[in-house]
């Protein structure tokens, strides 16, 4: 029972670490876009 669960956990961890860089890159790109739009809003005095 434990070994099967351990295999499931390993599979989940593998999936997590496979997706993590992709998610991080997406979040970073989105964060950059947000920062740029906020900066331009600050410059325009609309924020």
Task: Explain how this protein is built.
There is one protein chain. With 47 residues, this protein is mainly alpha-helical. It has one helix at residues 2-44.
Short description:
The chain is mainly alpha-helical and 47 residues long.
Strand residues, percent: under 5%
Please tally the β strands and state the result.
0
**N-to-C SSE series?**
H
Major sheet characteristics? none
Coarse structural class: mainly alpha
Number of helices: 1
Helical percentage = over 70%
Radius of gyration: 19 Å
Low-confidence stretches: none
For the structure shown, list the relevant keywords.
mainly alpha, rod-shaped
List the helices and strands and how they pair.
Layout lengths: L1 H43 L3
């Amino acid at each position: 029972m434990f070994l099967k669960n351990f295999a499931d956990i390993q599979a989940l961890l593998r999936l997590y670490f496979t997706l993590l860089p992709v998610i991080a890159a997406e979040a970073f790109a989105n964060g950059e876009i947000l920062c740029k739009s906020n900066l331009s809003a600050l410059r325009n005095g609309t924020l």
